[in-house]
Amino acid sequence: QARLVESGGGSVQTGGSLTLSCAVSRNIFNFDRMGWYRQAPGKQRELVASISLNDGSTHYADSAKGRFAISKNNTGYSVHLQMNSLRPEDTAVYYCHIHVWTGDHDFYGQGTQVTVSS
Q1: Residue by residue, what is the 3-state secondary structure of 44-109?
Q2: What are the CA-CA distances from residue 91 to residues 2, 50, 63 (Å)?
Q3: In the 8-state DSSP scheme, what is residue 17?
Q4: Residue 87, CA distances (Å) to 3, 10, 21, 52 in order
Q5: pLDDT band, residue 40 (cuts 50/70/90)
Q6: What radius of gyration do the chain's Cα atoms show?
Q7: Are the C-beta atoms of residues 34 and 98 closer than 8 Å to each other?
Q8: What pLDDT is recorded for position 11?
Q9: Distance CA 101, CA 11 (A)
């Protein structure tokens, strides 16, 4: 069973920055994509950004383009999300995600709260 541990959430004012980090347990070997989802109160969980472990290609939600940057470390067991120019609508619980290609499984962390005040 994969274990994903997020850190770095918090409260900032509009225009501020935060960096989220996620550590993936070393007992998982066959995941090919890492990313960040978020869920605001009363809304569905949505993809914010993802990165391929195969070729490093990235994908961003339109709302994140130009403001957020996803990266991973060389081992592939940590993923980060640098968030700049934060807006109140970015307020949500942010979840780390990995996709395991054998069996096509998705795993999420417990989530970390990001609150942006105006």
Answers
A1: CCEEEEEEECCCCCEEECCCCCCCEEEEECCCCCEEEEEECCCCHHHCEEEEEEEEECCCCEEEEC
A2: 26, 19, 12
A3: -
A4: 30, 13, 19, 27
A5: very high
A6: 14
A7: yes
A8: 98
A9: 35
